[in-house]
Design a protein that fits this description.
The strands form 5 sheets. An 8-stranded parallel beta barrel has the order 2-3-4-5-6-7-8-9, surrounded by 10 helices. The chain has a 4-stranded mixed β-sheet with strand order 13-14-15-19. A 3-stranded antiparallel β-sheet has the order 16-17-18. By secondary structure, it is α/β, with parallel strands linked by helices. The protein is globular. Residues 307-311, 336-342 and 536-551 have low confidence and may be disordered. The chain folds into 3 domains: 7-271, Aldolase class I (TIM Barrel, Alpha-Beta Barrel), CATH 3.20.20.70; 304-376, no CATH class; 401-459, 2-Layer Sandwich (Double Stranded RNA Binding Domain), CATH 3.30.160. The N and C termini lie far apart (69 Å). The protein is 36% helix and 22% strand. It is built from 17 helices and 19 strands. The structure holds zinc ion. Zinc ion (ZN) binds at residues 18, 182, 212, 214, 248. Its EC number is 2.3.3.21. GO terms for molecular function: (R)-citramalate synthase activity; 2-isopropylmalate synthase activity. Pathway: Amino-acid biosynthesis; L-isoleucine biosynthesis; 2-oxobutanoate from pyruvate: step 1/3. Belongs to the alpha-IPM synthase/homocitrate synthase family.
Amino acid sequence: MNATTRQPILMYDTTLRDGSQGEGVSFSLQDKINVTRRLAEMGIDFVEGGYPLSNEKDVAFFQQIRDIDLGGTKVCAFGMTRRRGMKAADDPGMKALVAAQTPCITLVGKTWDYHATEVLRVSLEENLAMIGESAEFLGRHSDVIYDAEHFFDGYNANPDYAIETLRAAAASGAKWMVLCDTNGGTLPEQIAAVTKTAIEKLADFDVRFGIHCHNDGDLATANSLAAVDAGALQVQGTINGIGERCGNADLVAVVSNLALKKSGYEVLGGRSLKHLTELSRYVYETANLQWRNGQPFVGQSAFAHKGGMHVHAINKAASTYEHIDPALVGNERRILISELSGRSNIAAVAEQHNIADDREAMDKILAEVVRLENEGFQFENAGASFDLLVKRVTGSFTPHFDTIKYRVVAGDRDSRSHTVFAEAIIKLMVGDVLWFDAAEGHGPVNALDAALRKALQGTYPCLTEMHLIDYKVRVVDSGAGTAASIRVNIESSDGNESWGTIGVSENIIEASYNALVDAVEYKLHKENVPQPVADADSNDQADLAESASAN
Ligand SMILES: [Zn+2]
């Protein structure tokens, strides 16, 4: 096939907006920034960041993301048409969209006559004016992507009016017409026919079409592909299909099918999909959701085979039971109990540590990963802990301090001031100096973090740059069949970089402390801070530095 004849199909990710409507899904500000970066690395063309009018977090997101280089990926702000009876320029929603200063603005409007008159309670003419004036106003500042809400249901009810709404947006300069199957109940053949008709009816405008499907009939992927075959050039969806009710179209499946199954299309600028599994798991971990083992292409069971034969025979036979080579999407064939997560990380980190050719080191790392995964560790979201693991296994790790003991008093309640606080006491050896410190915090982890850094900052001033930006706790089943473990993920930042660490224990404080220690060690290793050399003269009279009192 001639690569130059392939039609690019642009991917529009709405994990951070539509996806975050899913039950149990919530993203912190830092999560949103991290996910956006990952999506950009993957080559996703558009990333919808949220509603700038709805909350402070989204406003902060749009401010911060502006300063981050995302390559060719465009960030979009999302919002509704102006309110009825108001000038677009005076509408707070419109102003917030412009203030977000994104290269694209996604404007959603009503297509269905019933929705205009019964939900918005505006005349059909006023709805058209709301769409047109909003698109025109926003188009002065950014490219406008027009999302036609309930397009397929609206088209069924009143096809002429549905087309009129698109024409109102197109006539006012919107660049994209995205047809939404908002209720998610349309069948692929209906999607194809209506998309084709809509494209024909707007042939007099210089606009491109996109598709936005929900998965209520378990057809969101099939519907998205049907729309592409009918001429849509953009697919909107979420990573892993997370979203309200039954979710959105899963971009993982859409991208895989377009790149690997259908011919004539190009996605993600022709990039390889070998980080797709990693991205899928990263989003699950960040959203604090359990993976879906049976998820097509990237699920842990997507290429899992039950054994029973000699391993070589299984390896040979398994490929006859696989629709694609799992490596194409960064997944792995699983036979017996081979654990797969972390493998792509292992390869990447091995390269950084110049041990890619060291078979023995690689085997040791893999064995350690498998052991820890059985205890409940999961390194997809804890790259810094993984980096330290590689250093430990290959002998290049030297601790910057040793914890002698710590103690936390949690839940100390002052009923008069209505505050609950915690106190941590910590005793560390740094070189040959003993440090003993205490600190208070809003909770036990905050107090531990404060005490740890207080004890270390004298020796390692660069630690003042770092702070904890996110903290997540999950109960995990440990492979050993013992009591459930607690997995703690911590995200730290020093303003230049953020990094994730992990701790697992049956004790939540211990799990948190281990993740904090890794966060500090990672920072010190990253900065190449030397370990303090034990002073020969003072070896026999270890110094007790009572450096501070609780504040
Ligand atoms: Zn939607």
